[in-house]
Automatic annotation (TrEMBL):
The entry's keywords: NAD, Oxidoreductase
Keyword Kinase: no
EC assignment: 1.2.1.3
Family matches, as CDD domains: ALDH_F7_AASADH (cd07130)
Protein family (similarity comment): Belongs to the aldehyde dehydrogenase family.
Enzyme class: oxidoreductase
Boundaries of every Aldehyde dehydrogenase domain copy: 34-487
Active site: E262
The protein, known as: aldehyde dehydrogenase (NAD(+))
Pfam families associated with the record: Aldedh
Assembly information from the UniProt record: Homotetramer.
Species whose genome carries this gene: Nocardia albiluteola
Top-level taxon: Bacteria
Amino acid sequence: MTIAAPDTRELAARAEQLLRTLGATPPAPGLLPARTPITGGELTTLSPSSDAEIDAAIGKAATAFRDWRTVPAPQRAAVVRRLGELLTAHQHELGELVTLEAGKIGAEARGEVQEMIDICEFAVGLSRQLYGRTMASERPGHRLMETWHPLGVVGVLSAFNFPVAVWAWNTAVALVCGDTVVWKPSETTPLTALACHGLLRRAAAEVGADPEIHQLIQGAADAGARLVDDERIALVSATGSVRMGRTVGPRVAARFGRCLLELGGNNAAIVTPSADLELATRGVVFAAAGTAGQRCTSLRRLIAHTDVVGPLTDRIEAAYRQLRVGSPLEDGVLVGPLINSRAYTAMQEALTRAVADGGELLCGGERVMVHGEDSYYVHPALVRMPAQTEVVREETFAPILYVLTYDDFDEAIALHNAVPQGLSSAVFTRDQREAERFLAADGSDCGIANVNIGTSGAEIGGAFGGEKQTGGGRESGSDSWKAYMRRATNTVNYSTDLPLAQGIQFG
């Protein structure tokens, strides 16, 4: 099936126009292609950062940190406040650029920019709440306390699927904490990075701050490796695959740097006999098919009780068959393209393995839109599985939903937790005992556990991250700011004596 899509030249011209509107200079031609998954064509090219340019960027961020760390946090927040205002003014333009470069439908792309605005608001408030604490000292005339201080240069490695929001999560919080930032975006989404970098530097200049507090480097994995290995980078915040995390974590640890990892997710939802099936269907379909299954929080496993699996899968299959797949620039489209051919190949290989394991493909999986040779549109796949086989335990970054069954709630939780990843999870139930058990210590082992909502669509106010092979990092809300700061324990003696702790007598 072939559906018309815009001409790549039109999209390239629009991307250049959007960059100029957002205050970014379109890049000079180079060796790094910027493609659109809408057609698979090339929007433009740009030059990857050289080793010398990367070294200089890190050096500028390290130099800027020396002064930035001494600026009072509420004053540092002025940059983030202004960035939020600029994002609000340009939400539609930046959202459209996200659509062109990442393939998200308009509502999701604008929603991603809204996340950026929200985290800016959060960080501005946070700037007056970087609280330490005072503890009781065992020694008379002494005060014991904790204080938090800026950490240093933060290196941000972001992925294509949230090309701007994850950068904002890290950058807004890091800046109010007194850190400077060097950002290496995915080589798949360099243009949105140019736009965000330009907006932040504009925000800094307009409030009288040093624009050098933020640096941007472009390139493939070797460019990111420079941040991983450079001792001037105090914290590496990396979002991507488990394979990437296995490389980044040990290398940062080897130089005693800090790491914040947001890696793979193999997210599941349990649907119990008491669940509202209409509610569950809506939650499942968005979580599994939204962003063409290319969210780290996308729903990949559905664990349904044997009493409801039939009517539930019937509802989901009916909804899947109504999903409109096509160009994300068209009104009414709900599922856009996969990012590239590798994603499509991985999806087809996973489906082949699932069927070989005894799975039944209920619907989807076919390539439903071809515009040229390099665009990859697929219909979300629904697969009934007899067991949680190896392919089900792996994360495939595409819209595949595996359906598993259970008879006992303990069995459901065991099935849910029997994967290496631990990012997001959900249960649909009207039984409070089941809900509370799911959230308890012996329930879901994920960093995010939801009741009667899907696995995707987290708010910025809560800490975002997961356990096991997801990496253990936390970004965004709650007390995630502590990852971007260093803690000091302080003892103040305001007496004229010098008692030692633990009652030790010396001399």
